[in-house]
Amino acid sequence: MNKGISIALLTAGIILIGYGVNASNSFGSDVSRFFTGSPTNRTVWLLIGGLIAAIVGFFSLFRGSRV
Q1: Which backbone phi and psi does 65 adopt, to 5 degrees?
Q2: pLDDT tens digit string along 13-62?
Q3: pTM
Q4: Where are the alpha helices (DSSP H) in 1-67?
Q5: What is the 8-class DSSP label of residue 64?
Q6: Residue 8, CA atoms < 13 Å, CB-side half-sphere
Q7: How far is CA 51 from CA 13, 16, 36, 37, 67, in A?
Q8: Longest C-alpha distance within the chain, in Å?
Q9: How far apart are CA 29 and CA 57, in angstroms?
Q10: What are the Cα distances from residue 48, in Å, to 2, 37, 53, 65, 67?
C-alpha cells in the first residue's frame, strides 16, 4: 500500500471518528440511548469504521516496505 492511500485512510478515519463523536452527542442518539440503552446504529458504525480506517492507515503508513 503506498503512502498516499495510507494518509488518506488515516485522515478519513480521524474524520469519521469526529463525526461519530458528534453524532453520539446528538438529540437522536440521546433519545435512542434513553429507550434502548445504546446510541444509534449510525453513531456506532461511524465510530467503528473510523477506528478501523485510522488503525489500518496508521500501521500501513509506518510499516516498512518489503521489496
Answers
A1: -75, 140
A2: 999 999 999 988 888 888 888 898 888 888 999 999 999 999 999 999 88
A3: 0.81
A4: 3-24, 27-36, 41-62
A5: P
A6: 5
A7: 6, 8, 24, 22, 28
A8: 54
A9: 28
A10: 23, 18, 9, 27, 32
Nearest-Å Rg of the Cα atoms of the chain is: 15
DSSP for residue 65: P
Instruction: Identify the CA nearest to 20 among candidates 43, 40, 39.
Output: 43
Q: Which residues of 39-59 are buried (b: 16+ CB within 10 A; e: fewer)?
A: bbebbeebbebbeebbebbee
Q: What is the DSSP letter of 39?
A: -
The DSSP call for residue 41 is: H
